[in-house]
Write a structure and sequence with these properties.
The protein contains 6 helices and no strands. Helix 1 runs antiparallel to helix 5 and helix 4 packs antiparallel against helix 5. It is elongated, with a radius of gyration of 17 Å. The structure holds fe (ii) ion (FE2) (2 copies).
């Protein structure tokens, strides 16, 4: 089971909830594979990819609303992950007939989520915390 450790929390409810949902889908995929139901990947992996893209849009909109200065860079990072998402879809299409693809898929998903999605988001964690502190200060 994959879990998000506290150091991987962004401390934004919207973003952390999305990341948690992505973890849940990965855990469902892992369970389906472990339970001998790799056919489920044909449904679950496209769900993962679709939700990831929605998450990127949501995250970019949130950052744009807060005038995050490095938004363009982060947007380009999201776009650069398209190839990896495509690789996961390709692997998912092969897992039933080609068992070694199951392990590759599982590893790709976990590394993708932890390294490419969450770890890169830690770049704006401090920015979000500062914006929040400023907003709290201006309420007084
Ligand atoms: Fe994210
Ligand atoms: Fe991101």
């Amino acid at each position: 089971m994959v879990q998000i450790s506290p150091s991987f929390k962004i401390e934004s409810e919207t973003i952390d909830n999305d990341h948690r949902h992505l973890v849940e889908i990965i855990n469902e995929i892992t369970k389906a594979i472990d339970d001998g139901q790799p056919g489920e990947c044909a449904r679950l992996v496209p769900d993962f990819v679709a939700f990831t893209k929605q998450h990127f849009d949501r995250e970019e909109a949130l950052l744009a609303g807060l005038s995050y200065p490095l938004l363009e860079k982060h947007r380009r990072h999201h776009i650069s992950l398209d190839d990896k998402l495509q690789i996961m879809l390709n692997l998912a299409a092969r897992v039933v007939e080609h068992p070694p693809a199951r392990d590759s898929l599982r590893k790709e998903l976990v590394y993708f989520l932890l390294d490419d999605v969450i770890n890169e988001d830690l770049n704006f964690k401090k920015f979000l915390a500062e914006v929040e502190t400023d907003a709290a200060g201006s309420d007084k």
